[in-house]
Each structure stands twice: as C-alpha cells, then as structure tokens.
Amino acid sequence: xxxxxxxxxxxTPVARLSVLQDNSSFGSKFIGGKRMKSxxxxxxxxxxxxxxTRVSAIASTTPVYSDGENGMFVDTxxxxxxxxxxxxxxxxxxxxxxxxxxxxxxxxxxSADFSDDFKFVAPVVGPLAKDDFIKAVAGxxxxxxxxDLNPQYYxxxxxxxxxxxxxxxxxTVGTHTGVLAGAIQPTGTVIESPPQTLSATYNEEGLIKKxxxxxxxxxxxxxxxxxxxxxxxxxxxxxxxxxPEAQPFKxxxxxxxxxxxxxxxxxFDK
Length: 270
Known about the structure:
Elements: H1 2-10, H2 13-24, E1 30-31, E2 34-35, H3 49-55, H4 76-82, H5 89-106, E3 114-121, E4 128-129, H6 130-137, E5 153-158, E6 165-170, E7 173-175, E8 190-192, E9 196-202, E10 208-216, H7 229-236, H8 253-268
Parallel strand pairs: 3-10
Antiparallel strand pairs: 1-2, 3-4, 5-6, 6-9, 7-8, 9-10
Helix pairs in contact: 1-7
C-alpha cells in the first residue's frame, strides 16, 4: 500500500487520471485488460485431485492436501518441500522484509531490485513496467504529509501454489500533519486504513518481477471509505478524487434493479 501511495501521489493530476483511465474504464467486464470469461467457461472448484490439478495448471506446485487425496485443506509444508524453486520460503520472506525496510527508510526504489520484466499491479493502477514505475515514484516523499506514517506489515507467508511469491498484510496508520502530495494542507486527521493484501513475486535470481498492493480485505474497517492505498488516504483527509474508483463503493443502478427483482420474485413465490 505504501508503495502505491507513493506512486499515485507522485503523478500530476493529469497523468494520474490518464493512468487510471487506461486501466479502469473497461468496468467490471474486464480484469487486467482482458475480458472475463462467461460463467459457463470458468473452471468450477471441486474437492478432488483431478479437478484441483486442472485448476492449478497455471501454478508451479501440484496441490497436496493434509486431509487426504480428496481433501480441502492444503498441506503447505509438503508443497514447499516438493517445490523446485531454488530460494526457500524463509529466505524469500527475509528478502522481502529487507527490501521493505530499504524502501521505507530510503523512501525510494532501486531498479537493481527488479527484473527487466518487472510489473506493478494494483486494483486500479497498472500494470506498470519497471521504468514507468521507477520514474513515477522517484523523488517523492509521502512522509512529508504524514510524518508518522507506518504501514504496519505483518503475516508474511509464501504461497504454496506459487512458491516464488510472498504475501503479506498491511494496516497503514498515520496523522496528516504536513502538506500531502504538494498541495493538500494539514488536517490533523488520524488515518486508519483497512487491512490490505500485498505481494512480491521473485525470479530464480532473487529479483522481484511483480508487486501487487492495495487489495482491501474488509472495507468496513478504518476511515478510508473502504478503500486502500492513496485513494483511501485522500478520502480520509477530505480530498477524495472525483471519479468512482476513488470513492467509497456504491451499488450500480443495475445491481439495485437485480436485487429488487430478486425480492419481488421471492415475494410472489411465497
């Protein structure tokens, strides 16, 4: 989350909007620039070895279950042991924590940490390539506006299905006592973000090839309108950006109509 806040706040308003428009204007029918498959074409989850193997075809480790062949509880240790990825889970977690410390202290990113095919992906922003990401965050210090900013990282774990990927959680807090993003005057607001999931994915050389940030786990927590990253921060200090992606969730007309029709049907089916 801290990384995405740096990225978005660094961009000028025009550049910020152009990035968002390029990547979010397709609406709910698109994810990552690709049209979602219809429900009938999506592989349905099932608790059996054959189906689970098919579902995990894009992953790098075959699933193992702690409660038997047709189980539903993944045996993470067994999957770690079977992984061919050369960097062990505990070492990946250490690398990730060291990288986060460098980023927080230096407040910048070293391109040497990233692979040439690196990309940054957030719920609205991205994917951004390595050079674009580095340029976007270079020289900007979010802690000028929020001096006591603390991302409060915890729950580091390696994904057993992607043994080169470290997941972790953040509950960012801070007080808006300085000028934020070069223009937003101090409000004294104590910012409390909801828990958000982040990840760092590595190649076999130990370079980071992908970062994901800002995926909110519970939008009822905190005072950011249920939003993560910079959108949530700006909303908390009264400077939310003027487009739907930067505002708290509101049901669409079609969704409300769908609910109304469902209630009507339930009434007449009594």
